[in-house]
């Protein structure tokens, strides 16, 4: 069975972490892992660039067609994704339509195209990210976590490990997880 990871994070990810993410995208791509991401500047594109460098497998979920000039065909957001986004976002009803689309696509990144997750083994096996606050658990997400917090909150419910590269021990824990 193919292993899947979400490579996501802040648009303001520091340059040194961007380089780590590109490297991780290459390493995991070479090992046959499928990347799930969202085509946004910063972390998303770093993982995607690394994956592309080695011809790795990827699923790039977009909030709208041609988002950030991406040619990914994965821009149809099912109603179930919006329903789940409402559950996981603390201020969903205060968001504009584009932000709601982003939150729904973040759910897809974690649970996969059917949005059933564990029932059909489509959920990601792990999340690798960077956020300014280092959140790795849904209860620890803050406004600083940004949209990545949505994916982290879903991952917490599905017991999916999150490795936030803001935390000094994240790479060591990731290495151990991959063994």
Structure description:
The mean pLDDT is 94. Helix 1 packs parallel to helix 2 and helix 4 (97-111) packs across helix 5. This protein has a single domain, classed as Rossmann fold, CATH 3.40.50. It has helices at 15-30, 43-53, 79-88, 97-111, 148-157, 170-178; strands spanning 4-7, 34-37, 57-60, 126-129, 162-164. The longest helix is centred in the first third of the chain and has 16 residues, at 15-30. By secondary structure, the chain is of the alpha/beta class. Strand 4 (126-129), helix 5 and strand 5 (162-164) form a beta-alpha-beta unit. The protein has 6 helices and 5 strands.
Features:
40% helix; Rossmann fold; five-stranded parallel sheet; globular; alpha/beta; 179 residues
Supply the CATH architecture: 3-Layer(aba) Sandwich
Query: How many distinct beta strands?
Result: 5
| Adjacency order of strands in the biggest sheet | 3-2-1-4-5
Q: What's the shape?
A: globular
Work out the count of structural domains: 1
User: On the 0-100 scale, what is the average pLDDT?
Assistant: 94
